[in-house]
């Protein structure tokens, strides 16, 4: 209250009684008032000056706990209360004494106990971070990284196997070094022209070979090369492009490659890049049904389908091959949207009637209706079936919906598409509106491995039966190689017009370094240990060395029935990601990327099984 307003009530105006030495009562009163105002001002100033104890604590202790407590504790609401500073100082002293005791305690602990404590602290931080959401890739939630078992292997004891394995590593080195020398940063290498090559599948994203090869380099322990690749990814891998990409190809090669590189190496840059790219792919799902577009402009987020696809349809093998990667993206980002998108695809499929229990290759994303009733376990269909089985396996066999969908689909395939030739070769034909085309693609040969991988969980005692089917498909695919001049398999082979396992059309005679046949040998070897699978793999190695290896890398060939190779001049990125990886694993022990802990995406990028008992959770956003 201002002093002047008090005067009329307290002052008695009697100036006569005043003397030079003594003050009159009013004067005394005014003096008293001025003095008390002065004292009040001085006190006030003390509270407006910075609190020295806080300054000191900031400089010397950097203790956020102390800072927080002094700012928000009950005393701070009453800055004038006596003893506040003492209480703060006492708290600092207490905290420090506590810290000293804890440190003493820690020194007495065993290393494993200390480790456990650190882990708990990390987990606490993690759950705090979770509250901040996971959408900003620069602000991803903290995850505890554990390398799943079997990321690298050891040399096989058997000298021949050891030598063969070393040979595959040498092939990888030749493919990689050539790419590095002649096409570094391009998507792929032209090994004859010794220049870079880019297909329009990746828009203007660069470095497909680098990202596709990362995990192969790692598992072969080519760490100098892996580090160079990491350096390139850190500095150059850029998804901010105004270009249209294939959602499927970018997902299986780039997202899959980055995820595997993260799980193998623990390097954060790979998690960050995978999530960043995953987020760029999300607009592809903006369709009335949530079935994604095949093509997407990464800048505008505008999607569309391949102009050749039946009535504007999306393709089964494309929208059906996102599940594994997207489940891991949700796990590593804390963002459930990725998982929701792929689970919705299933929901749409489960609502539809399936002709003879089969899944047509074409589905319209606007109407949610099937397009042409064409069914294939090769091109346009293949990896959809693969991802049903692997979704179940990757969930540590908890995703029963995926399991049922896989075994039901396989039963329909067996009934409607699987046939035996008069010469006794089992093959999987293509189905067009109820009519069979007796042709099998090189791509379809992956099915031997898939059926072997799923045989163990097959319902109604069908394990043995499915293992036989898998072995028969492996044999047929081997025959497709054995019946050519170059001992490499054609793109597609037929079982009609008097031929078996032979390509009859010129445009089906090429071999582009594809992995599917070797992939099946690798699975068959792991499940049976029948030496013929390693022998068949070795035959393929010799053919690759003889006909595909050139000074500048490895090239596909235009006609596997010609007596000498005519090179197509492309070293496909999947040659490093898949073909060489599966060959290396074929000559490695079973505990290297063991199936109990890993599933391979369709581009052979290993992703960890998400363990239900959480014993070897590779990464946990808690
Ligand atoms: C790879 O990109 C993948 O395996 C895909 O699923 C289909 N085929 C090529 C290699 O042949």
Structure notes:
By secondary structure, the protein is mostly helical. The chain is 50% helix and 8% strand. It has 21 helices and 20 strands. It is globular, with a radius of gyration of 35 Å. GO terms for molecular function: mannosyl-oligosaccharide 1,2-alpha-mannosidase activity. The chain crosses the membrane at residues 29-49. Belongs to the glycosyl hydrolase 47 family. Ca(2+) binds at residue 602.
What brief labels describe this structure?
single chain, 622 residues, mainly alpha, three-stranded antiparallel sheet, 21 helices, globular, disordered N terminus, binds 1-deoxymannojirimycin, Seven-hairpin_glycosidases, hydrolase
| Unreliable parts | 1-22, 42-84, 127-134
Mean pLDDT: 86
Query: Quaternary state, please?
Result: single chain
Bound ions, cofactors and other small molecules, one mention each: 1-deoxymannojirimycin
Biggest pleated sheet = 3 strands, antiparallel
Give the N-terminus to C-terminus distance in angstroms: 57 Å
| Strand-residue proportion | 5-15%
Overall strand count: 20
Shape: globular
User: Count of DSSP helices?
Assistant: 21
- Trace the largest sheet across and list its strands: 4-5-6
Question: Structural class per helix/strand content?
Answer: mainly alpha
What share of residues is helical? Answer: 40-55%
Report Rg. Answer: 35 Å
Pfam family, one: Glyco_hydro_47
Subcellular location: Endomembrane system
Active site: 249 (proton donor), 382, 491 (proton donor), 516
Family: Belongs to the glycosyl hydrolase 47 family.
